[in-house]
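To: structure desk
From: M.T.
Subject: fold request, one chain
Message: Could you run this one when you get a chance? Sequence is below, nothing fancy, just the single chain.
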Amino acid sequence: MAPAHSEEPEQSQRRGAPSRHPEVEHGLAELVRVMDNAAQALFVSRVADMRFTYVNNAACELTGYDEAELLDLEPQHLDTRGRESGGVAWHTEHAASTRTTVVRRKDGVDIPVEITSGVPSSSPGGDPQVMFLVADITQRLRDQESITRSAEELRIAEERDRIARDLHDTVIQRLFAAGMDLQVTARAVVDNDDGIETRIENAIDEIDASIADIRAAISTTLSASAAPPDLSAAICAIVDESAATLGFAPIVEIAIDEDNPPPAVIVDQALPTLREALSNVIRHAAASEVVVTVTCDGRDYFEMSITDDGIGFASGDKSRSRIRGRGIANMSARAAGLGGTCSIERAGSCGTTIVWQAPLKRRWS
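Reply: Done. Structure tokens follow.
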């Protein structure tokens, strides 16, 4: 203990004050023992001049100074950040407080610390003093930095995956359709089709739109709070795009509660899924009829199904190209990311039905 503590009983006796009760003396001795051996660094300072009057063993280990050296110092000698900024984190207030600063050890090493100050108090006839608990937060800061870095790496990885899906589900499919249109145009050259100029212009427009989509996919991120587009109009637009390549117009059945439309985060995933599903029909199904059904009652689920009467797949056989590849994986990933499902089923004796669902009750942030 500091001299100020050890001299107090002797001074009290000289003033004629009664000596402390043995139980009080025992309690004080036990308190000092606990403080001396506490794992956390403890400092006690006089409020008047802020000189340390007591330090424990952990304080000496933290700073590299011995007890005598610390008792000859003031907090500002240790507070590196406080000296540089003109303020000191070792303040005395009427309420407990916690601050962070940097303590410079005797060997010159700076250590980030968290300082918790108590409320100034004093014994009868004594000087007001305040206790500081000082914790080394080096490892805590390292952990926080590691967590922040890992979270950022995960965010970047998820964003890259999202961009890859968007590029595949929107841009690549549109380029695929444009390529098919150019193939038809190439055949029309031989047949002297009068509509060749219009076909070429349309193909160029699609390619230009694809370039714009690539730029948007790279420079923007999804926003769950963004207002959703007119879903019915967007669905019809995607279906109309596929009609020219299919050679017929798909049937569209939409049942949506206009007062409780699905959130934007679902719409943002449903539209690329519809485009991908129709692209699969175009490439693999050899279908003569396609039915797109979208339902959303605003209470439980958003559900979208795409049914065709094409070649389908054998029962239990899902290895063929019709249902293989990144397209199907993307549709499933989009549903799973929303807590939903994506299933592929046989449609009667032939054909295929893709059912894509997402729950409406999930909390979106």
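Reply (cont.): The domain at 223-365 is CATH 3.30.565.10 (Heat Shock Protein 90). Let me know if you need anything else for the meeting.
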